[in-house]
Amino acid sequence: MTFVAENLSPHPEGGHFREVYRSAESVTDARKTQKSALTHIYFSLAKGEVSRFHRVEQEEVWNLYRGGLRLWILNPENGELQSLELSESENQFCAVIPPGHWQAAEVIGQEVLVGCTVAPGFDFSDFELIHAGHPLCPPIREAGLAHLL
Predict the structure, then answer these.
(1) Cα angle: 32, vertex 38, 44; to 5 degrees
(2) Using CA atoms, how far apart are residues 76 and 88, in angstroms rounded to an integer?
């Protein structure tokens, strides 16, 4: 099976995406809901675009294909903010976001193309964008990351 990174659509968090794989296998998640076992998307950001802080209920794996990316991960339990650079220069091509952790990203350079794999499979009902009144917004602003809200 091969996939081409074309015909990407706007994503609610910012950037563009296209789902390229949804497993025919199903699993039961922690809420006893039947879900696809695994999903995978292509996700791109161009210079000036960002992926705003959001979270999903499942684990998410980011794989770098082209360009560079600054990934921000915010632990909802203790407010710890972590920054990771996915790039060839850092020799870092993959990152795992724990379930329920807030995440945001910005392009390093002109553009970035990543693959995002979610297991159990992604569903927009499990997706949440951070809202302006969320208690974690002040620390995000204090860290100089208001542009990711």
Answers:
(1) 125
(2) 29
Query: What are phi and psi for residue 103, nearest 5 degrees?
Result: -145, 150
Nearest-angstrom CA–CA distance, 114 and 80: 24
Query: Is 0.85 surpassed by the pTM of this model?
Result: yes
**Mean pLDDT along residues 97-118:** 97
pLDDT for the residue numbered 6: 78
Do 92 and 86 meet the contact criterion of CB atoms below 8 Å apart? yes
Q: Identify the pLDDT of residue 4.
A: 57
CA atoms within 13 A on the CB side of 59: 8
Mean pLDDT of the chain: 94
Domains of the chain: 9-143 (2.60.120.10)
Task: Give the span between the Cα atoms of 39 and 20, in whole angstroms.
Answer: 8
Using 50, 70 and 90 to split pLDDT, how confident is the model at 30? confident
